[in-house]
Design a protein that fits this description.
The protein has 68 residues and is an all-alpha fold. 57% of the residues lie in helices and 0% in strands.
Length: 68
């Protein structure tokens, strides 16, 4: 098993490696990416995703019912 203390998200692993900033798009910094990555909690992100998915499928279902 992988030690719990060493577990990281792919983004955290990328940040932990030296010299990876030059792989980012021109003009993009880790500080900018941090703002995006940490804007919402790990629990809120899937809630937002599920809500958006539900809204999408409701609109598709509504559209299909009105066409019938």
């Amino acid at each position: 098993r992988y030690p719990y203390e060493q577990m990281m998200t792919p983004y955290d692993k990328l940040q932990s490696l030296s010299g990876t900033a030059h792989y980012l798009n021109s003009g993009t910094t880790f500080e900018q990416l941090d703002e995006i990555a940490y804007a919402i909690s790990d629990n809120e992100a899937p809630q937002r995703l599920n809500q958006a998915r539900d809204d999408l499928f409701r609109s598709i279902n509504k559209s299909l019912k009105s066409d019938a």
